[in-house]
Structure formats: structure tokens, C-alpha cells
Amino acid sequence: MCGLAGFLQANGLVSEQPHALAARMGERIAHRGPDDSGVWLDANAGISLAHRRLSILDLSPAGHQPMVSVSGRYVIVFNGEIYNHLGLRRELGNIEWRGHSDTETVLAGFEAWGIETMLKKVVGMFAIALWDRTERVLTLARDRMGEKPLYYGWQGNTFLFGSELKALKAHPAFRGEIDRDALTLLLRHNYIPAPYSIYKGIHKLPQGTWLQIPSIMGMNVAKETAPQAYWSLRDVVHAGQAAPFVGSDTEAVDALEARLKSSIGLQMMADVPLGAFLSGGVDSSTVVALMQAQSNRPVKTFTIGFNESGYNEAEDAKTVASHLGTEHTELYIPPQETINVIPKLPSLYDEPFSDSSQIPTFLVSQMARRHVTVSLSGDAGDELFGGYNRYFQGHKIWHKIRIVPRPLRSLVAMMITSVSPQRLDRFAEAFSSVMPGELRAGRAGDKLHKLAEVIDKESPEALYKTLVSHWKSPSSVVLDSSEPPTVITDNSQWADLDDFTLQMMYLDTMTYLPDDILVKVDRAAMGMSLETRVPFLDHNVVEFAWGLPLSLKVRNGQGKWILRQVLYKYVPKEFIERPKMGFGIPIDSWLRGPLKDWAEALLDEKRLIAEGFFNPAPIRKKWAEHLSGKRNWQYHLWDVLIFQAWIEAQGH
Predict the structure, then answer these.
(1) To 5 degrees, how large is the angle CA 611–CA 472–CA 361?
(2) What whole-number distance in Å separates Cα of residue 599 and Cα of residue 604?
(3) Is the pLDDT of residue 140 over 90?
């Protein structure tokens, strides 16, 4: 796990030496690789490469980057881990290896098989910049599921690229013009999806693609080819639906267990201490259980706890850890220590990112890094195996409401939202004996308000878009903006699926997973020089999961049925069966309490007008309603607050 950066100059030289400039770009992401650094350049071709290394495999100097291939043709900077690299070495045959790093394996594969073929062979997570000294072509590539980040773009006649935006900002050609259209996407989703970034002209390389840029030294034009897919989730989905798994339930459970064991076994490979995050939920508990089953010593597991009711999973994690016999570490975080993370967010995430679970993710990463250098996580279980409530509740809601005339549904929605969540909570508590189970589990008012947002929709597609949106009309909030198309709004990018539950799972895997979940974990962990690995994202597991019938994922109104059956071989069912909690913090009450003054300063109407990014009226209205308790607008307000804190940190 490392960080990479570099630039390709089309015409003219920068004022300072390119070696020093590349080194400075690398220094900006030193947290991604504190163990070693390196720079390689070819002034005649206009290419400079920088690398920061977090040593995981081959701790010797033989793993140093930038690394030049044996023939001298290729030079690489690489961020990630290739879990099958030892198998690839055997396939490559009789080669005199200089060390045992996966970087050297990747280079040899590019030489032997070509770039696209090698990308298809690897199992792992990665971002790669590869310079071909013969053809004078720069290749950028990103792993299939988007675990590792890679930004790029022309700024004038200089092509910049790097693991994080702060590396690009270190180059004098970087312009830093805010993309207001991308800002609308932040307000809708709490993240900015690929290929967009917060800056004009700077893109995120989409997952599963590679991009080539020829050297155009001495020319006055910037040339760039479009990203090409070497692996497509859409193709995987179609293949899985065309040839689904046909065995029994038991055979399916055993087959999934075998694939997960294989993936986890490969991802336990490291020359440094390794552990796992453990929340006590289905996904992380499954990962830890299969780790412990393949380890001859207790696996190190990590959990943080909160004293706030409804946000603490530490006790559940402790129960699972005790049963599995792991070496468990837990840390209860007081509210003020959690709040103290907020000023770090603009630097940690580089562009505005407002999933508030980024805060506990950073705290558990900080704790884990004191003990290990690598930590496995259970992310992606929800997307692959149907874990989110919308996968079964969304279908149920649409099935019930579609027979009711839409005007009547709109009237009911208006009646619900006219009552504050707090009053609805009190009503639900008073009549709990006759309330549906999901409303007896707490926060009934918020759940009813969310229901009101979707019951008047004209189609399941519109219902889904509402479920994954915060601000429903963000272009009316961001001045001089137009919301750009995304995978969610462009139906031509959807998979050909008859069942909309499956379509939701596909869309989440294409957007929410790489652009929210994986961003959150990567930046939080790498900010502490901690490598994270996600066993569910081995493409062999992903491809198997998409061949499974939906009935093996969602059954009897509950998600992740097949994953639960794997887990129950190792952990008693009663340890796991409880309402899904999520990994969050009480932003709603904090905005009315300890964060109130901070938020008021950032949302000050005069300030909003002076900065010129937002229309103050809808923001101030939601802020007033939130403070009064009439509505809970925590997500909408947090989107704006995070941007405001970020733009302040940029010195604008």
C-alpha cells in the first residue's frame, strides 16, 4: 500500500527542477507511504514519477519504487496489493527475480503478456502509473472495484496524476477551479462520484478501467484518450443472470464459504502485523471468523464504542470476539474526542466528503494502527448479498403504494411531514403495542419522514433515486450550477435486469460502494498509514455472488441470507440476529448542542452570500427547522457544512 504521483509535460519546462517538483508531490502524500520514497524522470520525454512506500511485502530495498523492469522498457509506480502474485510468478516461469514484491511481478507480467492481459490476470486492489520508455506512453489503471484512488487531468499543458488531490495541488500548473456542477452531486449523495471531482478538469479514473496518454513533448495541445474497461461489472451481472447457480441451498452456502476462505487466506498475506475491524455485524464477523479458522494464533480485532444510545456496537463485537477467541481491542470514545476529528476532515479527504461515519472510521483506524499495519474489513457485503434495508423494504413499499392513486399518496406524505419527528416519536412510543415492528425499534419519526419522501413517487426508479438522495434539487441550492449525469440518472449505463431489487444492488455497487464506502475507508485508514483490505471485493467472489438467485440473498424480509448461513457455522445465530445499526454518530443532536456555534458560523447568511456558492434561503430554513426540533435535517446540513469547512481550509 502506497501513494503515487507524477506529471507529463506537453510543452515547456516549469520554473523549478522536475525532480524536486515530483518529490514535493510525493511528500504531500507521505502518510500513504512513510517507509520509503523515490523519484524517476525522463526530461527528454517530459515524464516525472514519484512514489511513497508503506512496506507490506518485501521490506527490503528490492521493493523500492519507482521500479524499472528488467529490460528497462517499463517504469512503474504502484499502490495496492496483488494477492495472486506468487501464482503469477509461477505462471511467468523461469525469471531471475530481484526480490519478492508484487510490484516486480506486475512489471514482469506487463512485459510478458502486455498491459490489458496482465490487468485481467491480477487479483487485487491497485492504482498504477506505468511509463513505456519505448513507445513514450503513460498508462494509468485502477482495480476492478475501485478500492484504490487515482486522480488525473490536464491543467494547461501539464498532465497531472496522483493518489490524492493534495499531490496534484503541489504542482504549480494546478488551477483549483471549483466545479459547481460536481458540488450539486455532493449535496445529492454526500460524495462526488467518478469520473467527477470537486475541481474542473480533474477526474477520478473509473474502477475497472485503464487510460493511456502519449507523450506530446514539444506540442502545444493536450491529448487524452478515454478510459477503456478491462473488466465490467455490467458484463459480470449479465453473465450471472444468463447462467445462474443451480445447486441446492447447502451447495451454494458451501461454495460461497470456499470462495471467501480463499479470498481471505490470500489477503492475510503480509510481512507486517495484520488484523481486522470487527463491528459484530454479519459482514465483519464473517471475515474475522474465516480469518481465525485459517490462523494458528488469535487474530487481532478492533472495535470502537460510543456511550450514546443507538450508536454503540462494541458490546456485540466483544461477544463475537470472545466466542471466536480473537485478541480483541476496544476503545470507548468520548463525544469531545469524536468532535475533535472534524477539523481534520478537509485535509484527510482532500475534497468535500460528507458521510459522517468517516469520523468513527478514522478513529478505529487510528486505534488499529497502534497494533497493526494491515487491517481487513467487511465492506461490500451489503451490496453483494442484499443487506441494505432498501433492497427488501423498497420493494415492499412500492408493491403496497402503487395501487393507491398518487394524489392521495401525496396528501398522506404532506400530513406526515407536517408533524415533527419528535412528536411522531412520542406518538409511536405511546402506541408501541400496536405499531409495526420497524417503528418500535426507535427513531420512528425519522423513519416516517423518510417514508413520506418516497410514497408519492411515480416509479420504483424514482423511489430509488429518492432513497439515495439528500437534497432533492441540489442545482437550486448551488448557484450557477447544473447537475451532471451519473450512472444513477443515465439509464443507458444500467444493467439489463428485470428485478429492480437487483438493479438497486447493481447501482449501489457501481456508485455508493466505490465513491462513498471505499473512499471513506481508504482516506481514513491511509491517513494513519494503515492498509485496509476488503475480501468481499475479490472479483471471483463478486462474480460468484452475481450468479446467485436473489432468493439466496433476500429471504423472509431479511438480507444476506446466504452470508448468514456461512457465518452461523462459526458463530451462534443469537449473537448476530439484531436490528441493523450502521456505523454512525449522533450528528443530529450534536448540531443542536456542542457543534451549534461551529455550524452557525459556517452557515451564516452573510458568509454564504459573500462566498457565492450557495443560495442561503433553503439552507437557513433547514437550519432553523433543525434547531427547533421540527425536522431532522442532519444529512442535508452536514453536506453543506463539510463543504464550508473544506473551502475554508483551502483558504478561499
Answers:
(1) 75
(2) 8
(3) yes
For residues 253 and 248, what is the distance between their CA atoms, to the nearest angstrom? Answer: 9
The three-state secondary structure class of 79 is strand
- DSSP class of residue 149? -
Name the one residue in this structure whose C-alpha cell is 471467501: 260
Per-residue DSSP letters for 515-537? IIIHHHHHHHHHTTT-EEE-GGG
pLDDT at 435 over 50: no
- pLDDT band for 434, please (50, 70, 90 cuts): very low
Cα 603–Cα 361–Cα 198 angle in degrees, nearest 5: 50
Q: Which grid coordinates belong to 469?
A: 438522495
Q: Which residue has the higher pLDDT, 632 or 125?
A: 125
Count Cβ atoms within 10 A of the Cβ of residue 152 and give its class: 0-12 exposed, 13-18 middle, 19 or more buried: buried
User: Around 315, how many Cα atoms within 13 Å sit in the side-chain half-sphere?
Assistant: 9
Q: Which pLDDT belongs to residue 582? A: 55
Residues 400, 463: Cα–Cα separation, whole Å: 13
Q: Rounded to the nearest 5°, which phi and psi values hold at 158?
A: -120, 130
Alpha carbon distance 201, 224 (integer Å): 12
Peptide bond into 616 cis (omega under 30): no
Going by pLDDT thresholds of 50, 70 and 90, the confidence category of residue 580 is low
| Spatial distance between the Cα atoms of 441 and 574, rounded to a whole number of angstroms | 18
Question: Measured between alpha carbons, how far is 370 from 365 in angstroms, rounded to an integer?
Answer: 9
DSSP class per residue in 169-232: HTSTT----B-HHHHHHHHHHSS--TT--SBTT-EEPPTTEEEEEE--TT-SS---PPPEESS-
When pLDDT is cut at 50, 70 and 90, the band that residue 454 belongs to is: confident
Q: Does 85 participate in catalysis according to the annotation?
A: no
Cα–Cα distance for residue pair 32/498, rounded to 1 Å: 43
Amino acid in the structure at residue 88: L
> What pTM did the predictor assign?
0.93
The rounded mean pLDDT for the chain is 90
Could you tell me the CA-to-CA distances from 234 to 141, 160, 237, 238, 544 in Å, in that order? 19, 30, 5, 6, 14
Give pLDDT tens digits for 25-68.
Answer: 999 999 999 888 999 999 889 999 999 987 776 667 778 999 99
Helix, strand, coil share (%) of the chain residues, nearest 5: 45, 15, 40
The CA-based angle 427-429-430, given to 5 degrees, is 65
- What local confidence, expressed as pLDDT, does residue 586 receive? 87
Choosing from 1, 2, 67, 76, the catalytic residue is 2
Cβ within 8 Å of residue 160, ≥6 positions away: 6, 7, 151, 152, 153, 154, 168, 171, 173, 174, 202
pLDDT at residue 236 greater than cutoff 50: yes
Residue 174 has pLDDT above 90, yes or no: yes
pLDDT tens, 156-168?
Answer: 999 999 999 999 9
Cβ atoms of 166 and 27 closer than 8 Å: no
Q: Work out whether strand 137-142 and strand 124-132 pair parallel, antiparallel, or are unpaired.
A: antiparallel
